[in-house]
Amino acid sequence: MRMPLSRSVALALIAACALPIAGCANNRSKGDVPYVARDVGTLYATAKRYLDRGRYKEAAQLFDEVERQHPYSIWARRAQLMGAFSYYLDADYTKSIESAQRFLAVHPGNRDAPYAYYLVALGYYEQISDVTRDQKITQQALDALGELSRRYPASKYAADARLKVDLVRDHLAGKEMEIGRFYEKRGEWLAATLRFRKVVDEYQTTTHVPEALMRLTETYLALGIPIEAKKAAAVLGANYPGSIWYERAYKLMERHPVTAKSGA
């Protein structure tokens, strides 16, 4: 399950990356691009034309050709980014990330570096799967978004990156909750408690915290630590008093009141 993406944000960036140049298109067959020597203007213009027509894979391949045939041209630098963007639109996120990272390796201080970092982050972000699957890509997306925000906090991409960081963190917290609920159903109270505790400690701003506090109330009671259960319920009541999770925690504590003896 992919998270929703404001593709218009990325699409709007093409105007900033495209260089208006004149040139005539050469005909070629689909698939891999054979090496046919062409001047840089013709290559770039043809690639841009394919991009405008929605032929993203072909556009990306021709932008790669610009870099391959004219590596020392000023066009090669721009073609790297345009190729990364074209691969992104073609949903070939691995190649998009590789192209953007190659740009950053060669031109780390370039003025378009923030955009390259943004493309890397988007490439990982688009691959985020549902919480029942491995979350390696999710963590990579979080790392890439965080790096963009740290390096270029004032850039026009940082605000979108920060929004996506919140969504990714919520996704990771959801994974912890899913594992915690699995352990709780099996009666593995300590393992479940550790997962719910992690959500409360590391993902405080996510939507999963109220349920995590209620689940902690349950698991602490199951572990025979009612005083900790009372603390979790109290935090839940103080921060989310109108939630269904607090109602459940309150009823639990009513059935298991903490006495001086049990709290000792």
**Class from helix and strand fractions:** mainly alpha
Roughly what is the average pLDDT, rounded to an integer? Answer: 85
| Uncertain spans | 1-31
Question: How are helices and strands ordered from N to C?
Answer: HHHHHHHHHHHHH
Task: Please give the radius of gyration in angstroms.
Answer: 25 Å
Q: Largest sheet at a glance?
A: none
Put simply, the count of helices is 13
- What amount of the residues lies in strands? under 5%
Q: Count the E strands.
A: 0
For the termini, the CA-CA separation is 47 Å
Overall shape: it is elongated
The share of residues in helices is: 55-70%
Descriptive notes:
By secondary structure, the protein is mostly helical. 67% of the residues lie in helices and 0% in strands. It has 13 helices and no strands. It has helices spanning 7-12, 14-17, 40-52, 56-69, 74-89, 93-106, 113-125, 136-151, 158-185, 189-202, 209-222, 226-239, 244-255. The protein is elongated and about 85 Å long. The two termini are 47 Å apart. Mean pLDDT is 85; it is low at 1-31.
Which labels suit this protein?
mainly alpha, 0% strand, elongated
